[in-house]
Amino acid sequence: MRILVTGAAGFIGSHVVDAALAAGHEVTGLDSLEATTHDARPGYWPDDAELLVGDIRDASLLRRVLEGVDVVCHQAAMVGLGTGLPDLPAYSDVNVTGTAVLLEAMGRRQVPRLVLASSMVVYGEGGYTCPAHARVQPPARSRDDLARGMFEPRCPYCGAGLRTVPVTEDAPLDPRSAYAVSKVAQEQMAAVWAGLTGGSAMALRYHNVYGPRMPRDTPYSGVAAIFRSALEAGRAPRVFEDGAQQRDFVHAEDVAAANLLAMAAGRPGHLRAYNIASGEPHTIGQMAAALARALGAPEPEVTGEFRLGDVRHIVASPARARSELGFLAQTRFGSGMARFARAPLREPARGERPGLSARWPPAQPPAAA
Known about the structure:
Layout: E1 2-6, H1 11-22, E2 26-31, E3 50-53, H2 59-65, E4 71-74, H3 87-109, E5 113-119, E6 127-130, E7 134-136, H4 143-147, E8 163-165, H5 178-197, E9 200-206, E10 208-210, H6 223-232, E11 238-239, E12 246-247, E13 249-251, H7 252-263, E14 271-276, E15 282-283, H8 284-295, E16 301-302, H9 319-325, H10 333-340, E17 359-360
Parallel strand pairs: 1-2, 1-4, 2-3, 4-5, 5-9, 9-14, 10-13, 11-16
Antiparallel strand pairs: 3-17, 6-7, 6-8, 12-15
């Protein structure tokens, strides 16, 4: 297959590129090499794949690069929590408008397949049951409750304590940040594109992805990378709340494998969503402790601090991805965290933004007459 990977130089996109090349596919990468994340082409970019530097919102560029492409793996996005008012225009412009421009160009070039990087954040909180009211969807936790150390969500009807259950792809969507809203919009636009063009769209709802090339010490660093940086500096990682927040940590290599499986699946004219997760939840405190043990570093410090907008628990069911895609995460939590403790991270960008006309490998000079 001829594959276009957007956001190809990034953390997850670059792993998708590596996996696609290893599987024998022809790969072109597109990345803006935005100055907040990259100084230049990353050193891990493979020699046997072309990297085009450009903006996902550039319609004329997209129409050129989509010529002859069989499937688009759309990883490009502005990431992060996005809780403040100033975040709204940027997330909408890059993630929503960028995806709309891409889909329109795909329609013009009759590209039949899309694999979209979505996120667990579309669910808001995870799945919960109440003893009296069965399955419930708790509202966002209040500042007052968090300040009092009341971290667990309560039943919105009776105030009782809740039990966490795995969230499935059919759960109601409840985005609670600018980033989350943009991911829901991407999925919905992809569904519209599929209906209008007869193409197939697969939305992969990533859970907490970790692994080599995670960005280090930026506003977009994942919690695993933040803890890594603290431990390497000889500091105890600071764990918010009581450390009992549950997450599903899935390795980037497994996420890349899921993307390849999704490229070969799909139903014409429809969008199908999948949780991409390990199926083995762990707490934030357990993750911090595992990294500390692997590095022989200080034990985590549980601070009781909190961030408004954070969810308490989100535990996924990967059953649909297993039955329909054949996806099963191969990296277990213990071995994955031990590897990640010493894996190379991507250093913060410090240089100038490269020109949008740059390309790797560079074009060959014309032959002598």
